[in-house]
Amino acid sequence: MYDIDVLIQLAEGQDMLAVRDRLEELDEHFVNAGLKFFFVQHPDSQFCREELLRGCADIVLIETLAAGALGLPTVAGPTYKVPFYDIPILHPTILILTKLKRWSTTHPSTRPQTITKTRIDKNDITFMLTYLFSHSLHIEFTKYAGKSREELVRMVKGFYDKLVEGGEDGTVRTLKGVMYNEDWEMMVGLPVEAEESLVPPIN
Prior knowledge:
By secondary structure, the chain is α+β, with helices and mostly antiparallel strands. The chain has 2 domains: 2-66, no CATH class; 81-188, no CATH class. Helices cover 44% and strands 16% of the residues. The chain is built from 7 helices and 6 strands. The protein has helices at 16-26, 49-55, 92-106, 112-134, 149-165, 169-177, 181-188; strands at 2-8, 30-33, 36-40, 59-66, 79-82, 87-90. The protein has a 4-stranded mixed beta sheet with strand order 1-4-3-2, with helices on both faces. Strands 5-6 form a two-stranded antiparallel ribbon. Strand 2 and strand 3 form a beta hairpin. Helix 3 packs across helix 5 (149-165) and helix 5 crosses helix 7. The longest helix has 23 residues, at 112-134. The termini are far apart.
């Protein structure tokens, strides 16, 4: 199964569940199943929702995320149109910060499932760093709506510290290459913060 995150800027008073219900009404490819939302490439009207999801291999889990929730940008932009597909995505210079935001929240966890997600997030971040570097792009801290530049730079500092701790010099160089000099200097000048443990206390 594939999955995709969709950032949606809701109008005032608009409800995400209502948006999902409306999409399901308008297009049979969309399927609501409890708290989850799916896209089915080849829907078959003779099956109920549960049977349809069980019987199809080509389904996509859609994470519908409201702009401003969970530390995400309060504005779904700026965007970038993917060549050949004409699909707007959050611009890579901003998108990488959303991944770093989740990584910064989950990486201290010792739960096996969270550790797996954190590892996947790190791989995604490394890939995006390489993409930005190869396209001569820089992380745009000031264009991430809803968070200050200082907050975001401090967040990236946590990732940088982990790279240094792990001896990942190549990735450190790539990170430096995709940050403006003033952002880099601000980041390396910050102190190393003590990591908050998520291990439950033993009574």
